[in-house]
Design brief:
two-stranded antiparallel sheet, mainly alpha, single chain, elongated
């Protein structure tokens, strides 16, 4: 039996939005390449002993991560207050945590449904 996974049919149920200066900016999920770039930046910020190095590098990486996730906001990040940038990053982190929990729940439900169908 042939099985097809059509990735073009997966709905984008993105509802994460930020309003800044009366403009709405929509969260865009990272591509695989952007995700790898973000992870590499995080790894490069660590010294050989595993401790994080300079603050400027960490803030730059934070700004770039936010800019990748909210591309329409990228050109405005330098003009933001630092606490606004941190609020966006915290919002992104909480959103990612909820999405991961939802994915685990869905996989568990799919496995259970599959097991019941095969039983």
């Amino acid at each position: 039996m042939t099985q097809i996974l059509n990735l073009d049919e997966i709905p984008n149920e993105n509802t994460q939005k930020i309003i800044y200066q009366r403009e709405t900016h929509v969260f865009e999920p990272l591509t695989v390449g952007e995700f790898i770039q973000t992870v590499r930046q995080a790894e490069e910020m660590k010294d050989d002993d595993g401790s994080e190095n300079n603050l400027a590098s960490r803030v730059t990486a934070l700004k770039e991560a936010v800019g990748r996730s909210f591309p329409t906001l990228k050109d405005k990040l330098d003009g933001m207050k630092f606490d606004q940038l941190l609020a966006i990053f915290n919002f992104m982190s909480k959103t990612a945590e909820v999405a991961a929990q939802d994915a685990v729940t869905q996989v568990a439900a799919d496995v259970e449904a599959s097991a019941e169908g095969n039983g």
